Amino acid sequence: MKETAGPGFVLREVPEPSIRDDEVLIQVRRAGVCGTDVHIYEWDDWARGRCRPPFVVGHEFAGDVVQVGALVENVKVGDRVTAEGHIVDGMCLLCRTGNAHVCPHTKIIGVDRDGCFAEYIAMPATNVWHLDANVSYEIGGIHDPMGNAFHTALTHTEIPGATVLVTGCGPIGCFAVGICKAAGASRIIASDVNPKRLELARRMGAHDTVHPSEAATAVERATGGYGVDVVLEMSGVPAAIHQAFALVRVGGRVQMLGIPAKPMEVNFASEVIFKGITIYGVVGRRMYDTWHQMTRFLRSGEFDPTPVITHRFPLEGFDDAIHAIKSGEAGKVVFEIA
Ligand code: NAD
Ligand code: ZN
């Protein structure tokens, strides 16, 4: 839990959540740990401005349904599930035009209400996503960040045959490499400053894995000097964002997932306008296009995120889990809960 407004988490006994008539209670088996959880742990400016302790942290999970509300029809006790952690109003202009991922009234589990680093979590039944029988709880538990990668890689892009640059090979960048590979990209160049993460990107199918200082040469070699068709910006680091604009081809696309910590300067004339590029800002996962894509890719067997998961901890190991992420030694870190 985040018990008070300050750094760290604490382990506490809390009451089992009660559910409303349109909600279900899920016993959590596996939960992914995310950079957002690190922000909440460290209690940085973003966390201070957004979060209201006390609350249970965590937004990536999978488990079993153990109770359903009186109005719930499509989810049953015993179902193996994960869930979309963004709870939207379903009624606003955005929700009712197929854009619920940018609903202005979004509440996020583990940020704005109790989350999943616990034995049980209450979720609206409409947010529940059923897992295929052969999808493990562990993979179910990382659908949220995998969904970020699917959304970024496959929304308004044409990946088959494309040349792709992925800047930033954190867990989401590594998932994106695997997705582009499965979707038929002809060449995937992945950049990161961390050799451990480049190694993971290579295992996920990147053709070239390079330090950012070598990215321009790699792109030039792979594209005859034109630049890549698509950049997936997955670092949030200003230098990488400038590189994304520099290394995308004229008329190409930059899909922006990484979140810069501070405002940054962009030369719109030279970096964007005269290059005729298209920029797409990624928020969460499209509801539920992204989820269907993700399930189909997993079903096909062409995409396997398993190599990205490097560290597993019990809930009691929360300090170690956060440190594993901060150290840069880890890919995806998960809690094994029950
Ligand atoms: P991460 O911090 O684990 O990964 C970022 C990677 O970028 C790291 O491996 C880091 O070494 C690398 N990097 C640093 N400088 C670089 C440079 N100059 N060039 C290339 N790579 C560089 O993060 P993650 O969990 O994989 O998430 C990726 C980004 O996406 C983060 O910024 C995160 O905040 C953001 N995010 C956005 C959304 C959204 O909805 N928009 C959702 C989840 C995460
Ligand atoms: Zn809405």
What distinguishing features does this structure have?
338 residues, alpha/beta, Quinone Oxidoreductase, Chain A, domain 1, Rossmann fold, 2 domains, seven-stranded mixed sheet, six-stranded parallel sheet, 15 strands, 30% helix, 23% strand, globular, binds nicotinamide-adenine-dinucleotide, binds zinc ion, oxidoreductase activity, acting on the CH-OH group of donors, NAD or NADP as acceptor, oxidoreductase
Could you walk me through the main structural features you see in this protein, from its secondary elements to its overall organization?
The model has no long low-confidence stretch (mean pLDDT 98). Helix 4 packs across helix 5. The strands form 3 sheets. Strands 1, 2, 3, 6, 7, 14 and 15 form a 7-stranded mixed β-sheet that branches. A 6-stranded parallel β-sheet has the order 10-9-8-11-12-13, with helices on both faces. Strands 4-5 form a two-stranded antiparallel ribbon. The chain has 11 helices and 15 strands. The protein has 338 residues and is of the alpha/beta class. Helix 6 links the parallel strand 9 (187-191) and strand 10. It has 2 domains: 23-142 and 305-336, Quinone Oxidoreductase, Chain A, domain 1; 147-281, Rossmann fold (3-Layer(aba) Sandwich), CATH 3.40.50. The chain binds nicotinamide-adenine-dinucleotide and zinc ion. Residues 88-89, 92, 94-95, 100, 103, 105 line the site of zinc ion (ZN). Zinc ion (ZN) binds at residues 88-89, 92, 94-95, 100, 103, 105.
Write a brief caption for the model.
The protein is an alpha/beta fold and 338 residues long.
